[in-house]
Amino acid sequence: MGKNIFIVTLCLVLSKIALAQPAVDGFMKGKGNLDLVGGINFDTFSKYHAFNGLVPVGRSTTSASIFAAAGITNWLDAQVNLPYVMTASNWSNLQDVSLFLKARLLNKSLNRGTFSTLISGGFSTPISDYPTQGLNAIGQQATAVDARLIMQYFANSGWFGMLQGGITSRSNPTPTSAPVAAKIGKAAENYYFDIYYDFQNTEGGADYLDGTNPAFTSLGVSYHKLGGTFYKPFSSGKMGLAFGAYAVLAGRNVGQSFGGSAAFIYKMKYLKNE
User: Fold this and answer.
1) Cα 22 from Cα 11, distance rounded (Å)
2) Number of domains in the chain
3) Is the pTM here over 0.85, yes or no?
4) CATH of the domain at 95
5) pLDDT per residue over 177-226, tens digit each?
6) Is residue 101 included in any domain, yes or no?
7) Beta bridge partners of 226
8) Is residue 159 assigned to a domain?
9) Does some domain include residue 37?
10) Residues near 63 by beta carbon (within 8 Å), at least 6 away in sequence
11) CB-based contacts of 161, cutoff 8 Å, min separation 6
């Protein structure tokens, strides 16, 4: 079995409100391959990064998602994600559906590995009238367009390093942000793991407790996040379980949260003759 069957995109099918993994990774599915994923995530915080520093505001959120990633060709992938978010106050609803396309521009073989350059484009939009204010907020009700450049080195030993960056433009009044992420890990014959750093910077927008009582939809959200993922395949690589953990280290208009996730992955061929 090739190592590629263990690469799952591993954004871990989680909602934006949970601040999970970066939306895309540096691996391609391969033509005719399809991953179907069901996942759950738990996120909690007791302090919030407001205009005047950390304030004692907290909540817990659970989210469940259905995620699919498919190899359209050997150089083009598509993925779709639909999260369902539940707050501790028992408010729950579908959040934002997202669709991403990812294309490989360069795949150069080197002496000890392969260097790849990819681009991705994504679109997300709310599909329910979920709340945006207070502790029941599920999101910002913003439609977003996301574009990223991804560079990755994958060694013959299975070790890899990835770096990506781009821009996410959102509908008014939610401000535009710039995401950056780095990841290192290993895809071995019978396991996968990674450690990642995820950063989002937003210029402009309002701030919580800045004295203007702004709508949450206008808040500018920034964060520094550190996390990791472990994936174990079974049943000849057709199925597997993934587990993740992360913590928000600093930010703006975001909870100083930590969380965990679990996902079940089923891998199949949707083109039987491939």
Assistant:
1) 6
2) 1
3) yes
4) 2.40.160.40
5) 999 999 999 999 899 999 999 999 999 999 999 999 999 999 999 999 99
6) yes
7) 197, 247
8) yes
9) yes
10) 14, 15, 17, 18, 40, 41, 43, 83, 84, 85, 86, 95
11) 152, 153, 182, 183, 184
Tokens read off for 70: 């498919």
Dump pLDDT digits (tens) for 28-62: 999 999 999 999 999 999 999 999 999 999 999 99
- Report whether the peptide linkage leading into residue 173 is cis, meaning its omega lies within 30 degrees of zero: yes
Dihedral (CA of 189, 41, 104, 272) sign: positive
Q: Residue 209 burial by CB count (10 A; 0-12/13-18/19+): exposed, middle or buried?
A: middle
Longest dimension (CA), the chain: 62
Domain of residue 14 covers: 3-269
Most confident of the following: 18-22, 193-197, 232-236: 193-197
Looking at residue 220, the DSSP 8-state letter turns out to be P
Phi, psi dihedral angles at 3 (to 5 degrees): -65, -25
Q: N- to C-terminal Cα distance for the chain?
A: 16
Pairwise CA distance, residues 81 & 13, whole Å: 6
Tokens standing for residue 259: 């969380």
Does any domain span residue 197? Answer: yes
